[in-house]
Design goal:
alpha/beta, single chain, Quinone Oxidoreductase, Chain A, domain 1, 16 strands
Length: 338
C-alpha cells in the first residue's frame, strides 16, 4: 500500500523530511478496524512529532492523527462497525498514523462520519473536536446541553483548529464566547463561527476583556500557548476554571489561582487511547454525537483548505503552513493518486 513516512527528523524544507513509500497492508485483530483512508488533516502535533532531532527510524514511520475513510475489515472483537461504514477519527499517538492507504485503529475511538460532509470536510474535525469537547465538558465541567447557559468563556486561539470547533461547541452549550484573533481574516472567521466578542491575543487581554464589560470570565480555554497565563489568572472568576492544551515551560505563578480557589486542567486528547482507560469508548460516543449535530445543521466543519493527493510533497507543504502559526481552520489532504 502507498504511504507517506519518514526515517529521519528533518526540517520540512528538506525533500527527505517526508518520503513516498510502499508498506505492507495491515490486518485487523481484536477491537481494531482496518480503514481505507480517504482524507487526512494536519495538526500542530504532527509538526511537533516531525521536528528535527538526532534520531533515525529503522523502519519508515507514518505520522498523521486525523482521518476519514471507509471500514475495509474488522477484528474479531469489533461490535461498533462493519465493512463499508464511513468513519472519522484521530487515532492513537503511540500507533502508526493516518498518512497511509490503510490504517488500523481501535473502534472505541472512532465515530460515524457525518453523512452531510465529504471525506475532506470530515477529516478536518476529529482531533480538534475531541480536544475541545473534552476540554469544555470533561475537564471544565461545563454542561453540554445548556444548563450553564449565559456563562462566559474566553477562548485563546480562537481561529486555530481547536478554537474553531470550540467556539461552536461553546455556543451550542449556551455560553457567551470571547475569542482571540489578530488578523482581519481570522477575526472574520471566528465571528462567522459564532464568537460574540473578539479580542487580540497580540495585545494585553485583561484591558480588552474588561472593556467589553466582563470584570471576570467563568471559564478560560488556552488553545495556543501559555504566554497569556498571567492574564488568564487575572481574568478567571473566583472558583472558575482554566484549561490548557499547551506543553509549556513558561513560569506559571499559582498564588492568584490559590486565592481565587480556581482550578487548572490539562487536556490531552490522546490520554484515553494511550493509557487504554476504561472510558476510552467516550471518544466514539462524542464523535458520533458531533456527527449527529453536524447532520442536524447545528455544527459545521472547520475545513479551510484542501490539497490533493496525499503524498510527500503535499505533506511537506501542509507542515510548512502549520509552522507559520498563521493558519486558520484546518488543512486537509485528500486521496491517494492511482
Amino acid at each position: 500500500m502507498k504511504a507517506v513516512a519518514l526515517t529521519r527528523y528533518l526540517p520540512v524544507s528538506d525533500p527527505e523530511s517526508f518520503l513516498d513509500v510502499e508498506l505492507p497492508k495491515p490486518e485487523p485483530k481484536g477491537h481494531d478496524i482496518l480503514v481505507a483512508v480517504r482524507a487526512v488533516a494536519v495538526n500542530p502535533v504532527d509538526v511537533k512529532m516531525r521536528a528535527p532531532k538526532d534520531k533515525v527510524e529503522e523502519t519508515p514511520r507514518v505520522l498523521g492523527w486525523d482521518a476519514s475513510g471507509v471500514v475495509e475489515a474488522v477484528g474479531a472483537d469489533v461490535t461498533l462497525f462493519q465493512p463499508g461504514d464511513a468513519v472519522y477519527y484521530a487515532g492513537d499517538l503511540t500507533r502508526s498514523g493516518s498518512n497511509q492507504q490503510y490504517q488500523l485503529v481501535d473502534e472505541r475511538i472512532v465515530g460515524r462520519k457525518p453523512k452531510s460532509l465529504s471525506f475532506a470536510e470530515a477529516a478536518a474535525l476529529p482531533l480538534t473536536t475531541i480536544t475541545a469537547y473534552e476540554a469544555f465538558f470533561d475537564r471544565l465541567g461545563i454542561d453540554r446541553d445548556g444548563a450553564d447557559h449565559g456563562q462566559s468563556i474566553l477562548i485563546v486561539g480562537g481561529a486555530g483548529g481547536v478554537g474553531s470547533i470550540g467556539i461552536q461547541l461553546a455556543k451550542r452549550a449556551g455560553l457567551t464566547v470571547i475569542a482571540t484573533a489578530s488578523r482581519p481574516e481570522t477575526i472574520a472567521w471566528v465571528k462567522e463561527l459564532g464568537a460574540d466578542h473578539v479580542v487580540s491575543h497580540r495585545e494585553p487581554l485583561v484591558a480588552q476583556v474588561r472593556a467589553l464589560g466582563f470584570p471576570h470570565v467563568d471559564h478560560i480555554a488556552i488553545f495556543n500557548d501559555m504566554r497569556h497565563w498571567d492574564d488568564a489568572v487575572e481574568l478567571i472568576r473566583p472558583q472558575g476554571g482554566i484549561v490548557s492544551i499547551d506543553n509549556t515551560n513558561v513560569p506559571m505563578p499559582m498564588a492568584g489561582m490559590k486565592t481565587k480557589a480556581a482550578s487548572l486542567h490539562w487536556e490531552f486528547m490522546f490520554a484515553r487511547p494511550m493509557h487504554q482507560t476504561p472510558d476510552m469508548i467516550e471518544q466514539h460516543r462524542l464523535l458520533s454525537f458531533v456527527a449527529d449535530e453536524i447532520d442536524a445543521g447545528r455544527l459545521k466543519t472547520t475545513l479551510a483548505e484542501v490539497l490533493s493527493p496525499i503524498n510527500a510533497a503535499n505533506l511537506r507543504e501542509a507542515h510548512r503552513r502549520i509552522e507559520t502559526g498563521a493558519a486558520k481552520g484546518k488543512i486537509v489532504i485528500e486521496g491517494f493518486a492511482g
